[in-house]
Amino acid sequence: MPTAPHIALDSAGAAAVDGRHIRALTFQSVRMEYLRRVLGELSLAAAGSRALVVGSGRGLLARSLAQLGFEVVAADSSPAATALALDADDGSGVTYLTTPAEKLDLPDASFDLVYCADTLEITERPDAVLVEAARVLRPGAAFVYDTVNRTPVSRLIYLGAFQAFPGTRIMPRGRNAARRLRRPEELAESLDRAGLSAKDISAFKPRDVRSLVRATRGRRRGTLTDDQLPELVDMVLEPESSPVVTYLGYAVRRA
């Protein structure tokens, strides 16, 4: 019988299946598409602006923001993730920092954009994350995020397929929990309490859910590499749809 793959987050091991990195790769295209839309709506120029990526993992999103012209800080609570990000960097100019999202080691009102990735559906203290994001944002600056809705379908995918079912498991058990998934209206209330005015949400999903199944199974079997997954999964924005599983959104820091 084939050996079950080693599931490990923030692992450089060749045999490891890192669901966090898989997620970052497959979300990258919609994250950047949505960010460009937000920058356009707010008339925010990258040149001369500072951006912070919270939950930056191996730094893929942070380096893409640097390529747009932002001065970027990439923050993650995992020292292993920070080490992998530094190893992957090719001179982008990104500053990498190990610090928890709930208590950022950064000064007040120092960023024009904060992107919160791989965090709101993981933390037990989402209000603390939002308060910290608001604290480091300048008035009128943008807070952008993606997260997971709390629905029967999202439970099936994130609690079942991604971390329990043997054929499609890519996350350690306990990485996601139903209590940490939040509906858009609940998150909007938390944003408001933190001093952030919610402006928009947009659903996103695989173009064909069968491709997601093929991708996760292929990655587990070792017949697909991480770099092959984004094209196969092909995430697409659905701004006019109610989010069933994953959604992006943004808010603005009130004065």
From TrEMBL:
Which ranges carry the Methyltransferase type domain?
52-144
**MF (Gene Ontology):** S-adenosylmethionine-dependent methyltransferase activity
Which Pfam families does the record associate with it? Methyltransf_11 (PF08241)
Annotated GO biological processes are: methylation
CDD domains according to UniProt? AdoMet_MTases
- Record's InterPro entries? Diverse_substrate_MTase, Methyltransf_11, SAM-dependent_MTases_sf
> Which SUPFAM superfamilies does this one have?
S-adenosyl-L-methionine-dependent methyltransferases
Please state what the protein is called.
Methyltransferase type 11 domain-containing protein
